[in-house]
Amino acid sequence: MQPKHLITVADLSLNDIDSIFKMANEMKSSLAGGKVTRSLEGKTLALVFEKSSLRTRVSFDVAMRQLGGGSIYLSRQDIDLGHRESVRDVAMTLSRYVDAIALRTFAHETVLEMAKNSCIPVINALSDRYHPCQALTDLYTIKEKRGTLKGLKVSFVGDGNNVARSLALLCARLGVAFSIASPNGYGLDKEFLDEIKVLTKVNLPTLSDDPKKVVKGADVIYTDTWVSMGQEVETEKRRRDFKGYCVDAALVALAKKDVLVMHCLPAHRDEEITSEVLDGPNSIVYDQAENRLHVQKAVLKLLLLSGKQG
Ligand code: CP
Ligand code: NVA
């Protein structure tokens, strides 16, 4: 039997998502109440990271410690995935030592290859295609702030990247309206749009190149970097192409008065978002970042407590 993986939010049933949100609530309140739950005692998570990270790395590590387990961080220098040895051999070997692998990498195929060859759960901790842990936290945070997801409008301004894809996919699954404004050529790609149509016929993303139109009446404005990790050579071109797509106070003023401003972080202040907005009264970016810890505890419990296979 294959273990349960989290490669994309499409891997989760609606029941799984509901359980994750409920468990995250429990995790958050027990931590606030000083209650210790050592439900992952004796378990170890390998953090195989080929790219930089603050939130994902630290929240997974702290989540494991607080639940009585531990983690091992393996950077590119440590194992040189795919060069020093194949992804398959890394997956087969780690499966003998640890209980789960969180993998942050470039090509999405690497996550698929790791999962295919692993006897333990593999969590996509960000690939060039998806960032499922971020999207789960984002929808959890919106629900926490608004009390419900019903009837909400999420507007993304910027690049149709890994964060945008996962957010669009989870919004569609949970019945939340998602629209995105991107410059020509930077919107959600055809392959993704075809994929999402197979999963759902309703709540498909609305695409536009006009940020003003997209944020009108929005409950949430979301943005992310214009230059994702691995795209650094395109920095100057992207900065030129994304001119006019900065989330500033004038844009926020077009949304609902109590609009939630979100960003997965790291932010490039005064590029995709002004400091005024990031630090302003509508911004919930640090609550959003905190929730990575609670939601990932729930993800770990869901995947790890179903037992080690193979
Ligand atoms: N949002 C997020 O994944 O942050 P890190 O890249 O710092 O992990
Ligand atoms: N889109 C960004 C997200 C960072 C958390 C990147 O991939 O670099």
CATH 4th-level superfamily of the largest domain: Aspartate/ornithine carbamoyltransferase
Inertia-based shape: globular
What ligands does this structure carry? phosphoric acid mono(formamide)ester, norvaline
Domain tally: 2
- Runs in which pLDDT lies below 50 for 5 or more consecutive residues are none
The structure class reads: alpha/beta
Mean pLDDT: 97
SSE sequence, one letter per element: HEHEHHEHEHEHEHEHEHHEHH
Instruction: Say what oligomer this is.
Output: single chain
What are the main properties of this structure?
single chain; alpha/beta; Rossmann fold; five-stranded parallel sheet; four-stranded parallel sheet; globular; binds phosphoric acid mono(formamide)ester; binds norvaline
Concise description?
The protein has 310 residues and is an alpha/beta fold.
Explained architecture:
It contains 13 helices and 9 strands. With 310 residues, the protein is an alpha/beta fold. The chain folds into 2 domains: 9-130 and 291-308, Rossmann fold (3-Layer(aba) Sandwich), CATH 3.40.50; 134-279, Aspartate/ornithine carbamoyltransferase (Rossmann fold, 3-Layer(aba) Sandwich), CATH 3.40.50.1370. A 5-stranded parallel β-sheet has the order 7-6-5-8-9. The protein has a 4-stranded parallel β-sheet with strand order 2-1-3-4, with helices on both faces. Helix 2 (55-66) links the parallel strand 1 (44-49) and strand 2 (70-75). It starts with 13 loop residues before the first helix and ends in a 6-residue tail after the last helix.
